[in-house]
Design goal:
Largest sheet: 6 strands, antiparallel, barrel
Number of domains: 1
Strand content: 35-45%
Number of helices: 1
Shape: globular
Length: 131
């Protein structure tokens, strides 16, 4: 069990290296991409979709740039979700946004090949794989 969670910073943030936890099949192909805040990006760690966010909440979150410059031209094109990472018996809840529909209760993981979608919003875009 030791070393299983290496790379996950204790206070959140971007992990320093890939995490080998609940990887599922290595043959799984990404089924799209998703946006997460950088502090909530844990590549390779599985998560469960806990709830859908109302569209008004999703648009409000994606429409709140710190410098009042709108970065996402159609924030209502995105579906917002509350996701739940679980490791060491501690749930970590986070927001995830994607143009895909993700059923509540389904399990996914974010890939390692992420890029900054918006540095102003601190959003990362990463491949999304269904488990």
């Amino acid at each position: 069990m030791k070393g299983e969670f290496e790379g996950i910073p204790p206070s959140g943030g971007v992990p320093s290296k890939p995490i080998a936890l609940d990887q599922g099949s290595n043959d799984a192909q990404p089924t799209g991409t998703a946006l997460v805040f950088a502090r909530d990006y844990y590549p390779g760690v599985s998560f469960r979709v806990a709830a859908n966010l109302p569209i008004l909440v999703t648009v409000t979150i994606l429409n709140q740039p710190p410098d009042d410059v709108q970065l996402i031209s159609q924030p209502d094109d995105y579906n917002g979700y509350v996701i739940n990472y679980a490791y060491r018996g501690t749930p970590i809840f986070a927001f995830l946004f994607t143009r895909r529909y993700l059923p509540t209760g389904s399990r996914y993981r974010l890939g390692q090949n992420a890029t900054y979608f918006s540095s102003n919003l601190n959003l990362i875009e990463a491949p999304l794989t269904e488990l």
